[in-house]
Amino acid sequence: SDGGDYLGVMVIFLLIPISITDYRINSWKEYKFSKFYNNFQKLSIYYNFNVLRILFCIVYFHAAVSKFHVAEWYNGTALYYYLNDPLSGNSSLIEKQFFKEILGNSFSIVILCWGTLLTEVMIAFMLFSNNHKLKRIVFAFGCILHISIIPLFYIPLFSIRMISCLFFYLIIVP
User: Fold this and answer.
1) Rounded CA separation 129/14 (Å)
2) 3-state DSSP call for residue 174?
């Protein structure tokens, strides 16, 4: 388990009531509320999407704050240590010249570490923002963060799950 499994289960669990009340065969068709389930559909969509948004806010806030007290994240060297560890990083990838140049530069390592923390904090605080343009920008940064996890740590399913969660959190408006 890479951590995204449990989050995926919670997301699916919260999407079940929304899916059950959706009478459409094709989800690309226009959604019209039926008379019988009208109130239940609206409440289900509203509350479950908001619970999902609060859940994602907590996950990203905890991901950022839990790294603050770790000395390697604080001084900006955590990425260097994690990538050079054969159990967590992709050590064959970091032997390539391109990555040696980036990881050999202490300034870029610090920028990448603090950029990760800043991105996670920005994602968490998007719960309180109504600015859709800013949410799309933060979504792009979150996608870059999670796409970069794929080759560096080789956990592609985690990245796909988290990008999907970011989509529900930042792009879809209930």
Assistant:
1) 22
2) coil
Query: What type of residue is 105?
Result: N
Distance CA 66, CA 117 (A): 10
How far apart CA 146 and CA 38 sit, in angstroms, is 37
pLDDT in 10s for each residue of the chain, 174 residues:
567 788 888 999 988 888 887 777 776 777 666 666 677 777 888 898 899 999 999 999 999 999 988 888 888 788 878 877 777 777 777 778 887 787 778 888 888 889 999 999 999 999 999 999 999 999 999 999 999 888 888 888 889 999 999 998 999 876
C-alpha Rg value of the chain to the nearest Å: 19
Residue 138, number of CB atoms within 10 A of its CB: 21
Q: Which is nearest to 55 in space by CA: 19, 16, 12, 11?
A: 11
Sign of CA dihedral 149, 153, 156, 161: negative
Task: Tell me the two tokens of residue 19.
Answer: 């899916």
pTM of the model: 0.85
> By three-state DSSP, how is residue 130 classified?
coil
Q: Say how far apart CA 115 and CA 121 lie, in whole Å.
A: 10
Closest by CA to 50, choosing from 125, 120, 127, is: 127
